[in-house]
């Protein structure tokens, strides 16, 4: 299968994307629509033949069977012996979902109802801090307990009508220090977000926040809430049980924004908008479950990804949202995609046949254009670009800004595809009055190789529903890519070793243990740090 695809990739080397548009209907045939979204992958080298070969992978790898097993609650996360049911958190209209025979929906719905009541109390001022109604919320969490809430709260800024939300993740004291300075502890609610409630960064920051609050508030625990799948561990913190919101271990950290980890988002936009966000994701779930591969947005997004990375060998992919409020989306997707599919072995523990998932990176446009796009256009590596943009902004008075934004987004994919030939560059230099060797030299710098692939996801407006759909789209894309590669997308053993070594290094840095058994480089770094610290 891979061999055949590699052969097709070699043939595709000779394909000029722009020539593919000589076929009538290319744009429509290599696009698909769902709800208010259009995903256009026609500016890639995919042809009918290569696409058909990729679609064959979907059946060959039994993507539908794996998908159904996930939605059904089978323990598909085999290395942790868990089901994978973030979809249950947004199962607003579906029926029972059983994990080991037990329906998880009553508990999920009851917890969401408690979250809603708590949010309502905070947002209306019925819930009071020591100094009055809550004005500010601080979410303390890291990884999946941070990136989802932070990204979505920023994305949905036009819908905020609740307290201001702030986020602390890094164990670097600078993070919490900068966050808390300027906040009034008597009117702040701290949410400690941690699936395991053991993560050292989060526990350290939570203790610091508690001490900060205790200096001004008699009962600091009362102004704390906790979200975790280990609710038993939250009691030690003195948080009232009615302010603790649990979720099952069948929800992975990077897939958890749909449940209690999304509490800060619900605080910011209210329960109704939060439900729209869930409904958007749920609609993408149904689409993913029912649409045929060619009509299935997550499947096609995944196959384009497999084509570019595993088949054509492009090492990274850029996610380029033309939306300032999606500035944190690339970082969010880094965790979602790289923690899920950055694995070197198959589900059976055998080495992967080809590369694991790609490096994912990006920044919002148009900012990136003035920074790293130089390399995207003229560097030697081909970087498939995933553009995304809303046709309409949220600032009606600034519609001209938005038109410029959209124009820039669309222009980039054209520039990547068309490029500029040496002849065109020469013509430009002739216009400038250059001649001979100077003309040739200057023209060479102005050549763009072109024929560089990109996809564009365009949608009407970044509403809560649309954001829910976009995140779910990428979640299922990651799932399909993982199934095609034969890996477990739902564990993350690769983060453990560094954590364990940090535990051994801390006492050495403090001078409580000697580091004689560490390597010479590490001993040298420790010595330098200790020389400054002490
Ligand atoms: O939510 P927590 O249990 O505190 O975990 C926070 C994060 O830390 C871990 O190291 C994992 O790599 C992430 O997947 C997780 O989201």
From TrEMBL:
<feature type="active site" description="Proton donor">
    <location>
        <position position="339"/>
    </location>
</feature>
<dbReference type="InterPro" id="IPR023096">
    <property type="entry name" value="G6P_Isomerase_C"/>
</dbReference>
<dbReference type="GO" id="GO:0006096">
    <property type="term" value="P:glycolytic process"/>
</dbReference>
<dbReference type="GO" id="GO:0004347">
    <property type="term" value="F:glucose-6-phosphate isomerase activity"/>
</dbReference>
<keyword id="KW-0324">Glycolysis</keyword>
<comment type="similarity">
    <text>Belongs to the GPI family.</text>
</comment>
<dbReference type="GO" id="GO:0097367">
    <property type="term" value="F:carbohydrate derivative binding"/>
</dbReference>
<feature type="active site">
    <location>
        <position position="370"/>
    </location>
</feature>
<keyword id="KW-0312">Gluconeogenesis</keyword>
<protein>
    <recommendedName>
        <fullName>Glucose-6-phosphate isomerase</fullName>
        <ecNumber>5.3.1.9</ecNumber>
    </recommendedName>
</protein>
<dbReference type="Pfam" id="PF00342">
    <property type="entry name" value="PGI"/>
</dbReference>
<dbReference type="GO" id="GO:0005829">
    <property type="term" value="C:cytosol"/>
</dbReference>
<feature type="active site">
    <location>
        <position position="499"/>
    </location>
</feature>
<dbReference type="InterPro" id="IPR046348">
    <property type="entry name" value="SIS_dom_sf"/>
</dbReference>
<dbReference type="GO" id="GO:0051156">
    <property type="term" value="P:glucose 6-phosphate metabolic process"/>
</dbReference>
<dbReference type="GO" id="GO:0048029">
    <property type="term" value="F:monosaccharide binding"/>
</dbReference>
<dbReference type="InterPro" id="IPR035476">
    <property type="entry name" value="SIS_PGI_1"/>
</dbReference>
<dbReference type="InterPro" id="IPR001672">
    <property type="entry name" value="G6P_Isomerase"/>
</dbReference>
<dbReference type="GO" id="GO:0006094">
    <property type="term" value="P:gluconeogenesis"/>
</dbReference>
<keyword id="KW-0963">Cytoplasm</keyword>
<comment type="pathway">
    <text>Carbohydrate degradation; glycolysis; D-glyceraldehyde 3-phosphate and glycerone phosphate from D-glucose: step 2/4.</text>
</comment>
<dbReference type="InterPro" id="IPR018189">
    <property type="entry name" value="Phosphoglucose_isomerase_CS"/>
</dbReference>
<keyword id="KW-0413">Isomerase</keyword>
<comment type="function">
    <text>Catalyzes the reversible isomerization of glucose-6-phosphate to fructose-6-phosphate.</text>
</comment>
<dbReference type="InterPro" id="IPR035482">
    <property type="entry name" value="SIS_PGI_2"/>
</dbReference>
<comment type="pathway">
    <text>Carbohydrate biosynthesis; gluconeogenesis.</text>
</comment>
């Amino acid at each position: 299968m891979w061999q055949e695809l590699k052969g097709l990739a070699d043939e595709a080397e000779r394909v000029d994307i722009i020539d593919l548009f000589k076929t009538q209907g290319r744009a429509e045939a290599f696009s698909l629509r769902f709800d208010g979204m259009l995903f256009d992958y026609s500016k890639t080298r995919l042809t009918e033949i290569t696409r058909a070969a990729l679609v064959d992978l979907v059946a060959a790898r039994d993507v539908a069977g794996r998908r159904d097993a996930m939605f059904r609650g089978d323990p598909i996360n085999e290395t942790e012996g868990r089901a994978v049911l973030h979809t249950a958190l947004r199962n607003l209209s579906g029926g029972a979902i059983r994990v080991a025979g037990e329906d998880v929906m009553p508990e999920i719905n009851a917890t969401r109802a408690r979250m809603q009541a708590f949010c309502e109390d905070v947002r209306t001022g019925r819930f009071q801090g020591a100094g009055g109604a809550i004005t500010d919320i601080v979410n303390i969490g890291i990884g999946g307990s941070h990136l989802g809430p932070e990204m979505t709260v920023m994305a949905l800024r036009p819908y905020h009508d609740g307290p201001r939300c702030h986020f602390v993740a890094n164990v670097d004291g600078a993070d919490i220090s900068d966050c808390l300075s300027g906040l009034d502890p008597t009117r702040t609610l701290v949410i400690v977000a941690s699936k395991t409630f053991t993560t050292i960064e989060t526990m350290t920051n939570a203790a610091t926040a508690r001490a900060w609050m205790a200096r001004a508030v008699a009962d600091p625990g009362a102004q704390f809430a906790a979200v975790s799948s280990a609710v038993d561990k939250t009691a030690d913190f003195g948080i009232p049980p009615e302010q603790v919101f649990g979720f099952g271990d069948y929800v992975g950290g990077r897939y958890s924004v749909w449940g209690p980890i999304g509490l800060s988002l619900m605080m910011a936009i209210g329960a109704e908008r939060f439900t729209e966000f869930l409904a958007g994701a749920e609609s993408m779930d149904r689409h993913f479950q029912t649409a045929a591969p060619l009509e299935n947005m997550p499947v096609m997004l995944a196959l384009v990804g497999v084509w570019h990375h595993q088949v054509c060998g492009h090492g990274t992919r850029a996610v380029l949202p033309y939306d300032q409020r999606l500035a944190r989306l690339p970082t969010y997707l880094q965790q979602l995609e790289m923690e899920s599919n950055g694995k070197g072995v198959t589900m059976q523990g055998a080495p992967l046949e080809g590369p694991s998932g790609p490096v994912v990176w990006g920044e919002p446009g148009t900012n990136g254009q003035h920074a790293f796009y130089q390399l995207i256009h003229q560097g030697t590596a081909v970087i498939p670009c995933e553009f995304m943009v809303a046709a309409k902004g949220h600032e009606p008075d600034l519609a001209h800004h938005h038109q410029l934004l959209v124009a820039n987004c669309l222009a980039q994919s054209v520039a990547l595809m068309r490029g500029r030939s040496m002849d065109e560059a020469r013509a430009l230099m002739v216009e400038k009055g250059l001649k001979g060797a100077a003309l040739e030299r200057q023209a060479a710098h102005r050549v763009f190789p072109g024929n560089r692939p990109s996809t564009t996801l365009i949608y009407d407006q970044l509403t809560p529903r649309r954001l829910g759909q976009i995140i779910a789209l990428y979640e299922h894309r990651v799932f399909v890519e993982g199934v095609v590669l034969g890996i477990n997308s739902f564990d993350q053993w690769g983060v453990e070793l560094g954590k364990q070594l940090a535990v051994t290094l801390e006492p050495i840095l403090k001078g409580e243990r000697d580091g004689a058994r560490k390597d010479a480089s590490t001993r040298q770094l420790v010595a330098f740090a200790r020389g400054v610290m002490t």
